[in-house]
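Page header: ASSEMBLY MODEL / two components / 519 residues total.
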Amino acid sequence: MITLSKNRLNGYLTLGAVLLFLLGCAVYLQANGADPSNPRADFWRMVRSGAPGYTAVSSQGHSVLIHNDGENWREIRNILIIDLSPWILGLTLVAMGLFHLIVGGDKLEEPRSGVMITRYSLGDRLLHWYTALLFIIMAVTGLSLLLGRAGLIPIFGHVAVASYLSIAKLVHNWAGPLFLAGVILEFFAWAGNNIPGKRDFEWFKSMGGMIGSGPRPHTGKINGGEKAWFWLMILFGATVGVTGVILDFPIWGQERFTMQVSHVIHATAAVLFVAASFGHMYMGTLGSEGAFEGMWRGKVDKVWAKQHADLWYEKVAGEE
Amino acid sequence: MARMKFLCDTERCIECNGCVTACNNEHDVPEGINRRHVVTLKDGEYGEKSMSVACMHCTDAPCAAVCPVDCFYTTPDGIVLHDKDLCIGCGYCFYACPFGAPQFEEQNIFAARTKMDKCTFCAGGPPPDNSAEEYRQYGRNRIAEGKLPLCAEMCSTKALLAGDGSIVSDIYRQRVVRRGGRPDTWGWDTAYDFKGSKE
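Prediction written out in full:
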């Protein structure tokens, strides 16, 4: 058994106390002098916040290490736009089909008179069909680019769809500004005829006499529904056109974020535009007997004019 | 199977841009395209750090998710490659990528985009390995030759690591354990007044 003498024990205790004191001093100094933040964590926070830095490779966006907005754009495009747009377009077609089955197209109430009245000039018709043709080209190519991966590749395979879409992209890019020009020309040509008035609200109550049994509302040359389509067309056309030009020409220094936002607006407006255009196409063909010839040959039957645009008919008849 | 990964050690990267130059030369990439770039944060300030970045060969790659022609594919090694014969040059991968990896030649009329180009982890593309066609479209296929990406192979400070993810992370873990909270270079905190400048 080892027994320590009292002096020796005191010596150990004193030494221990001194060492403990020194250790405490060291911890205190270290804690006071140390940087409480972690420089590596700070660096990572800077990277995640998208802070720009310097880079010798000055291509666009290269000064930022991690862009967060790309993932947001991906989610919006792949989940919201791609998943919802077939439903929007499909349900619009279904709703129109049901309308056609239940209410039916608007037939001429009297037999055709054979007397034709000029409704649209050659210039009006050329402008209409120029824009309409470009609209259809833009809609088909644009929807192919949006939905082709889900809808076309499983049927036609990667190679065929890629060759089609490479042409579709070129056509979409080149025809886009021409379509925008058509929309702008239509605005200046027809805006005067399409200023909304009190009569147009009356027209909407019975959808121009298509719904209900009341008398048809009095209507000028352009009815409320046509005016509504005109302004929707200008609104959507301008939206799609301006965002499309931003996407089309990456030569003005627009940033990737601008293009992501433009793409979301462009695709959303375009899908709604196409859905709304189904209504216009229906009303111009099946929905209203005798209306199509007005835009195709420029003339409508007197009976059609009396039925759909009585005030315009009286004005024209009075002039003759 | 190995999962290929890049890792850039910011404690070691000295922003020499050697990786960028080596890549451009090895793959003979067109003028104006850089498959890799080096970003320096707090350039010239206290706490300056550099990092080399290229395609990170994501497991859930945003570029592949948004491609309208589905031209991306992942090799069994976890390398994300794309088929330039399918690519239509829409630029959606450029919108989606967090790292700015997809590149387009910009000298066309109205800057119309042509085929996208990006880092291939030196693994080429769909044509036969090391064929003239593969070299023309994608550059050299070093993986098929049993080599690792040149950017990392020639990195002078071994800041940039490339290879099997488990080996890369083992190397990096050893470095972290050895240096602890200190910079990698002995005497760095004294030379650059690591503690003194924080008041």
